[in-house]
Structure formats: C-alpha cells, structure tokens
Amino acid sequence: MTTVAPAPPAPVVPLAPYDRRTLNQIFFEAIDRFGPGEALRYKRDSKWQSLTYREVELRVAHTAQLLRDLGLAHGDRVAILSENRPEWAFADYAALALGLIVVPIYPTLPPDQVDFILRDAGARLVFTSTAAQLQKIRAIRERQPTLEHVVVFDRSAAGEGVESLERLLDDAANSDGQWIRELRKKAYGIAAESVATIIYTSGTTGTPKGVMLSHQNLAAMVAASRQHGSLATRPGMVALSLLPLSHVLERGATTTTGITASPSPTQNRLRRSRPICWKSVPRS
C-alpha cells in the first residue's frame, strides 16, 4: 500500500506593517482611488445593474444621514438581518463611519435565535431585507427592550412601525458635499481599537456568544490577505459574493474586492459575471 506523506506546514510569515488600520480608511481610500470604476454589480428585476465607487459612497452617506437623524450615536448597536445585496454594504459602511457597532445576523436563523442575538447585543435598530425576514422581527419585537427602529430594504414590505430604506434614502437625497466631508471626518476619527462588529457564534455547542472585533482586527485580516496573496486582486477584476456577508471571511474579502455579482453561483450567472474568484469555507 502506498502512503502519502503529509505536506510540510506552511511557513509562518509575520504581518508586515500596514497603514490602513480601520475599515473606514480602507473604504474611503478605495472610493478615492477607484471613484468612477465599477464597484458593485447585482441583479434586480431580472436585469444586471451596477454602481460606481462614487455612487456607493453617496448611498452610504445617505444611509449614514438616516442613522444620524434617527438619533443613533457612537457605540450604539445596529443589526443587519439580510441576504447578500447592495443595501447590506450601504448599511454596514454607514454604521461603521458613524462609529456604530454592526451586528450581522445570518438570514437563515429562526426567530428564536434572532430574538436572542438582538436582545443580547442590545440593538437599537435592525435592518432587514424582505417581507419574509421582516416577519421574524415582527414575531419577536415585543420582547426587545432596546429595539427602537426597524428598517426594511424592500419598499413593498414597509408598514406600521417599519420604515422603508428606499423611501428614507429618497428623503435624504438632498445631502450635499458638506455632509460627505463631515462624514469622512467622523469616519477617520474612529480609533483602530474601537469595536466595529459583534459576530455571534453558531450556537451548535450552546448559547451563541458574541465575539467583539475591532476595526484593527478586521483591517489586519485584510492586510494579511493582501500580503500573502490569498485575495490578490487588480482593478477591473470581478469577485463573486458567495458566502453570506454575515460571515467574517466574506465581509473581510468584500472590503478587499467589492461585491460584484450574485449570491448563488449558477452556471448562467457565472457565465454572465465571469468572476476571477469567490470565497468559500470547508463544509462537513
């Protein structure tokens, strides 16, 4: 019988010094570097659509204006219960720019687990995507002592006690360059050690536990990926967003490469989007 010798362990390479120590720095420097270039590509109403980096910045600024006007302040928790879509990124970057703490929730979780995460994190606002996801929030809202605002991405799902992000962004569309400059100043003032996100464990071995990650934690992951070439990218490359954005690997990789396609790699979508890479993890 032939045996195969195990591969030698990969050498440990120390992380080289890096300058971008917060997710806000990474985001806004990408805007400045690639402004008119395509940042996001997504399918909506059976048609492919795209946004440039500058267009993404404008939507992030509008979303941040909404969060500010609702009274959210540095350190407040904002949850996102949604499938992968551009609004996920708008909400994420807007919250981070204001110094809020983002609590991503897997869209496949049942209401009882969503209930626990929202209560444990002390979320003041939750973004959700569709009527189906919103129904989970409606089922548990009365048990949420800190939850003040529910914002849904799909306009058609809005109703009593639930705001539509699209409508709110329409109201905020008069934001000018002054607000964007002010937002950038706020974003660059966020310390690298500030908590950026609380990611909850799957709960397969007990009650889910919230893991607090700082801006520097995630910025170091991005820097390491670039340094070691595991996410080597060049302008113009297309990266498929496959893992949920609630997964830390997808979120970190998206910070590096941008969301550019659909959440499921069907053959037709792969042929149309022609991605250079996508991210995944082993499954048993």
Structure characterization notes:
There is one protein chain. The chain has a domain at 23-27 and 49-232: ANL, N-terminal domain (Rossmann fold), CATH 3.40.50. It is built from ten helices and eleven strands. The longest helix is centred in the first third of the chain and has 17 residues, at 53-69. The chain is α/β, with parallel strands linked by helices. The model is unreliable at 256-263 (pLDDT under 50). 39% of the residues lie in helices and 18% in strands. The protein has a five-stranded parallel beta sheet with strand order 4-3-5-6-7, sandwiched between helices. The chain has a two-stranded antiparallel ribbon with strand order 1-2. Helix 1 (23-34) packs across helix 2 (53-69).
Could you list some keywords that capture this structure?
284 residues; alpha/beta; Rossmann fold; globular
